[in-house]
Amino acid sequence: MTSQAGTQRTWIITGASSGFGRAIAECAVGRGDNVVLAVRRPGSVADLADAHRDQVLIAEFDVRDTGRAGDVVQAAVERFGRVAGRTRATTPSPSASTCCSNTATRSAASSRS
Predict the structure, then answer these.
(1) Residue ranges under compositional bias (Low complexity) (predicted)?
(2) Which of 19, 55, 83, 91 lies most in the core, judged by the most C-beta atoms within 10 Å?
(3) Could you list the residue range(s) of the whole structural domain that residue 70 is in?
(4) Structural domain total, the chain
(5) C-alpha 95: how far from its chain's center?
(6) For the domain that residue 59 is a member of, what is the CATH number?
């Protein structure tokens, strides 16, 4: 499955260990997009990375260390060629919200079938 426009996007998601960040990461991977999971504890997302090896890169990163942000972007570009989206788990972007809303709608519909 690929993104809505038929092109694969690459996301950098901070706070991807749990909550909104995790949900957005799972949604993006489910759409066929690439995801860089920028997390403090890499082991917290190992299951997602193991399940989607071709689409997921784990980057150990603490958002308080802004000096390393460029390293995360560089790792994303080296692995996937470009970065087309980013989101912070505390403030999802409109496209991330749409992705999660569409996924939740599909999940609710399939559970009613």
Answers:
(1) 86-113
(2) 55
(3) 10-101
(4) 1
(5) 12
(6) 3.40.50.720
What's the predicted TM-score (pTM) here?
0.71
Phi, psi (degrees; rounded to nearest 5) at 64: -75, -15
At position 92, the amino acid (one-letter code) is P
Q: Which two tokens stand for residue 60?
A: 């150990």
Place of tokens 């569409």: 102
For residues 39 and 62, the answer to whether their CB atoms sit within 8 Å is no
Identify whether the C-beta of residue 37 lies closer than 8 Å to the C-beta of residue 25. Answer: yes
Q: Is there a domain that residue 5 lies in? A: no
DSSP one-letter string for 26-43: HHHHHTT-EEEEEES-GG
CA–centroid distance for 40 within its chain: 15
Distance CA 14, CA 22 (A): 9
* Residue 113 to residue 79: CA distance in whole angstroms: 39
Radius of gyration from C-alpha coordinates of the chain = 14
Per residue in 24-71, pLDDT (tens digit) is 999 999 999 999 999 999 999 999 999 999 999 999 999 999 999 999
